[in-house]
Write a structure and sequence with these properties.
By secondary structure, the chain is mainly alpha-helical. Helix content is about 70%, strand content about 0%. The protein is rod-shaped. The two termini are about 35 Å apart.
Amino acid sequence: MATTQKAAAPAKKSGFGGVKDAWIILVICAIAGYSVWYFVMGNPDNFIGGDRTGHPANLLGTVYKGGFVVGLILTLLFTVICLGFERFFGIKAASGKMNLAKFTAQVKAAVKDQKFDEAKALCDKMQGSVANVVLASINMYQAVENEPNLKKAAKIAKIQQAHEIGSFQALSAGGGADSMALSAGISEALVNTASGILTSWVATVVYNFFSNKIDKLTFALDEIGYTIAATYDSNHNEA
């Protein structure tokens, strides 16, 4: 008699999925960056006599005098900020709805006691990428139980493989006039340098913030994965 197999249900998608075409963000940020440079910083009100080619009357005018590179720096700054927000919501969705430490402790306890229905219920409540990986490991644990032809080492390996997760997974003339031009040039250089440093600082802070978040996720997954495999090992004595 032919047996029918029920197709596996596709993984549920929940929360923020991330931006697939990051180049769109770059284009938008470039337009915004150069618009701010030309229309805001280059506003005639920011220059003595209302002339962009003249001397700046305030800080915005001074920054504008930095030239084309100012728009590039602003583009990079806006890109870092936008991608920072994008990754924030992406990692938040991956982390799930429960406190990660609490989820890890409860799942480990449920797995050790072989209360797999309780562990699955926690995954359903948690949602997100972490819960999906843990659920896949639990399902594999139960699946290898029904494979008598596999040795224990092979079963543990399959459980560990099911737990693997991809990487969450980015710069005039005359002495008086000469002195004024020199001062303005130094000011422009210093302001542009400060702008570059600000952009680098924001990028570094954002990178370290999300690296720390991802480390916490992977550490929690490693803990749970080890617990699942160790539980199977301790409860099965066959070779």
